[in-house]
# Entry
Amino acid sequence: MLKRTNYCAEINKSLTGKKVIINGWVHKRRDLGNLIFILIRDITGIVQVVFDKDSERLYNIADSLNQEFVVSIEGLVIERNKENINPEMKSGEIELKATNIIVLSKSEIPPFVVDNRETASEETRLKFRYIDLRRPKLANNLVCRSRFSQSIRNYLFKQRFNEIETPLLIKSTPEGARDYVVPCRVQPGKFYALPQSPQLLKQLLMVSGFDKYYQFSKCFRDEDLRADRQPEFTQLDLEMSFVDEGDIFELMEGLLKHSLKEVLDIDIETPFLRMTYYEAMERFGIDKPDLRFDLELITLNEEFKNSGFKVFDSVIENNGRVGAIALETKNEYSRKNISELEEKLKKEFSIGGLAFMKVKNGSLDAGITKFFNDEIKSNILTKTGIKNGIVFIVADSNREKASLALGKLRNMLAKKEGLISDNKELKFLWITDFPLFEIDEENGNIAPKHHIFSMPKEEHIQYINSDPLKVIGKLYDLVLNGSELGSGSIRIHDFDLQKKMLNVINMSDEEAEERFGFLLEAFKYGAPPHGGFALGFDRLIMILTGEDSIRDVIAFPKTTSGSCLMTSAPDNLDKSQLKELKIALT
# Structure
């Protein structure tokens, strides 16, 4: 092998007349008779190498090369003729005239072409992931990921954070999703769990006196998978002592501003916009609104009050919501189009229906318009401000359900209307003041909305026993372009308050001691006020690289069924392994 002097993308006009050595894969070959052009690819890009018949030995070797052969090439850097310059390549102004070549490895014909175009099914690409990762698009994604993590480390180091690893074999403390469990051979019948997050361990680090901690943490959740979820994922996990919410916001905004500029040369404005959970639900029907387009929800309770329309009257009397989206559009929405939208909303939210009123030249027409007098119609036009388009209406006595359905509709309409014109636009948003508790729909019990270790606001502590659903927590989510990037909270650090919170969700003192005794015990020995944040690193990189699937920014991802097609994991254990672990399969 020849000792490399340059990566492919580093070779440019400044090296003209100099000899360089590159190592890489054969990307493409063109044979013009007396000349053979070979495109060589490495992790940085592609450079063109020319072989001519003046050197028969080199020409013959070039003639034997096929796609994905691994080669080491020495060549003289020469400028291309103006008509041959390729502006699509970083090295498009030059090429190498080969002076030596060594074939390091041959390749069979690959199962698909290594190109940014997806010429094979995802199943095939995941099976041959080591070939798929040669595609410049995916390679660039992983390089971006690497640079971003390094930039974050540098920033946090300057902020006096300590990078501390927490264990992957821990006690099972379910946090909402199912745990992945690991049998313990030396203690038959007992199991470790893989962490859903390092939540309790990082709180213990705060008790230990490490007042600024972070790690790129591997987390595991045995849950149904989607395009932006994996059974194992990476989060940037942080915790700080002696802080309030504002300190967390300032840190994360500074970190993202620094790394986006350093890695992608993107300038973002700080501080980020902040919005309470209730404001987000009222205005956008979702706690992670996409602010790249408008289309805010409108409440029409006053406009429809005493309208005589029974459905609306009943909803208003029960303090529900008659909510609307006023879509200014030239597109025609047929009854079939509206029915398709309605069915999707009914299926997900069990709403009664999707009503509508069309607007032409400032006048209401069609749909349920005929049921209302001129005064009501005039009030609706004034409130919505619409001139031409359609007003969609959802009414439900459960105010949150109506809002959620409208929030879903808002996103569907934005996609249908093409309201997001700039995919590179970054709209960050803090959602704050979440309720601490909610009703578990499966059993009707009170359950934590995020997790049970979050501090309630001081003025709401009084409601913990009497009216827990009224309690607002010091909780916050960071949203980017309609996706939740991460969440955090100021934590409880008081023994008695933490036990009281566990009692609210019907956890007895005995169960609390069994599951969280190590944390409660630590709170007896001087726990500082502390709070933190966990940022979904995979999801962040997915958004920044413009990918639709989180799998495209992870080196070796799983499918939606949790399988690795390349290694065939998960797999069976043989009988001897099961016997040693004292495990019987049923």
